[in-house]
Each structure stands twice: as C-alpha cells, then as structure tokens.
Amino acid sequence: MPLITSFHYKCVMKNPRSILITGASSGIGEALAREYANPGIFLALSGRNRERLNAVANYCRNKGVIVNTQVVDVTDRGAMAEWIKATNSEHPLDLIIANAGIAGDSGARSSDLNERLTRDIFDVNMLGVLNTIFPVIENMRQRRKGQLALVSSIAGFHGLPSAPAYSASKAMVKAYGEALHGVLKKDRVEVSVICPGFVRSRITDKNAFSMPLIMSASKAAQKIRKGLEKNQILIAFPWPFVLFMWCMSLLTSHLANKILSQITPKR
Using omega within 30 degrees of 0 as the cis cutoff, is the peptide bond preceding 238 cis? Predict the structure, then answer.
C-alpha cells in the first residue's frame, strides 16, 4: 500500500490537474496557461487586465479546459485569500504558480531611485507571492499533496545596479522559495523556484537596452513545465546567463559590482 501511495503522489505532481496561475493575462503567465491547456484540466487564472485575461481564458476553454478567472491585485491580501480558498475548496489545487510581478526600475530609470515605484515592486514581487501561497499552504500540508512554484529571476542571483529594486525583490523570492522547499518537503509539498532570463513580454518590449539570449514566452513555459514535472528546486535558464550570474555571486561584492556597472544600461 505505501508503494501505491508513493507512486500516485508522483504521478499527480507530474500531471497536475488543478492549477492556479497569477499574472496570467500576459507574458510567462499567459504562456503557462496555454501550455497547460488540455482537456480535463482546471485552470484558475488571475490578472489585472480583464480584456487580456478573458482572451487567455477563452483560448483555454476552446482547448477543453475548465477556467476560473479573477481580476485581482496580488497585493490585496484579503481578496487573494478569499479567491484562492474558495477555488481550492471546489477544486483542490495541485499546483500554484506565483507568477505575477512588475519591473519598472530597470535600465535608464534604475538611477532614479523612485521610492513609490520601489515600494510597489517589493509589494507585488514579494508580498504578492506570499498572498498567493499562504491561503493554501496549510491545506496542502494536511492533504500531503501539492506543488508551489515561485517565479523569481536570474536577476535574483546578484543585486543589479541596472535594476536595484527588481533584482532585490527577486532575490528575496529565490531565497524564500529555496528555504521553503526544505520546510515543506517532509509534508510532501514540493516547492520550485523559477529563475528565467529575458523573456519576450509586454514588460521587456518596453526595454530600450540590449537583452542577451532573450527567448519567447512559449519556450520559457515549456522549460518551466519540464522543470516542474521533475520537481526541480531551481529552474533557471538560459544556461549561459545562469552561469554568468552564478560566477558574479562567487566574486567579492566590490568586483562583481564593478563588472556589472560596466554593462549597466546608461542614460
């Protein structure tokens, strides 16, 4: 009997049937919704733009998916908890992808140190993740089944002068997710941290600087899905960019900052 239980658990994690994705109205979130859109799947999708979110939902429904949409700001703790708990009570969630995030202090704007924008970035990128996972963590622990995917960034490997608030907020997500994996593993709740490089989206389309090794959102979604199926703790890509940022983390802060400052987009 224990062997059957273990096998069933692994199958569920490899093929989640009930999935919640935040920031699903564009970019990686939209691509992930499309990637998981197969008959019999339940998708709970959130975003802040109703028109774009409905377009994604309609695509998924045409693929035979049951879709629940919610226009909600991930920084609204109460609204997020209400939506996620209600969704989980009707469709016990196998996989939650905390994807919603914003940038805004990258490139030429990085030296502005806009306080309001900085606080907004931390609220969405870090607190938004907490507001996404905490409404269901205890339920997953009790069920001894579930997977949490926290979207960080390669920018979270080291503080970037070209994106101070963004890279710092993503570093927090990365560190928290890695630690959370160790806490929840004994309860059979898997945790993965996703660290993509540059991915084509509405956000990156606004960037006026060079974005090395940029890839399509659909390709990124495929890589993420494969990594989640393997329950990888860290899903980071593309590898040359990962290797570069990993090397930066091995250097002294002085030397790393000197190198990174040389490639920081200038005004």
Answer: yes
Contact 142, 93 (CB under 8 A): no
Q: How buried is 131 (Cβ within 10 angstroms: 0-12 exposed, 13-18 middle, 19+ buried)? A: buried
Q: What is the pLDDT of residues 62-87, one digit of tens each?
A: 999 999 999 999 999 999 999 999 99
243 part of a folded domain? yes
The string of pLDDT tens digits covering residues 193-213 is 999 988 876 665 565 556 666
Structural domain of residue 181, as residue ranges? Answer: 2-262
Q: How far is CA 214 from the centre of its chain?
A: 17
Asked whether residue 267 is assigned to any structural domain, the reply reads no
Radius of gyration of the chain (CA): 18
- Which tokens belong to 1? 């009997």
Position 12 confidence tier, pLDDT thresholds 50, 70, 90: very low
- DSSP of 171-183: HHHHHHHHHHHHH
Query: Model confidence over 221-246: pLDDT tens digits?
Result: 999 999 999 999 999 998 887 888 88
Count of structural domains, the chain: 1
pTM, entire model: 0.87
C-alpha distances in angstroms, 133 versus 59, 74, 85, 130, 193? 26, 11, 10, 5, 13
Please report the beta strands in the chain, taking only residues with DSSP state E, as ranges in sequence order: 18-21, 42-47, 66-71, 95-98, 146-151, 189-196, 234-237
User: Which residue in this structure is represented by tokens 């927090």?
Assistant: 172
| Cβ proximity of 21 and 35 under 8 Å | no
Catalytic residue among 9, 36, 59, 166: 166
CB 196 within 8 A of CB 237: yes
State yes or no: is 59 an active-site residue. no
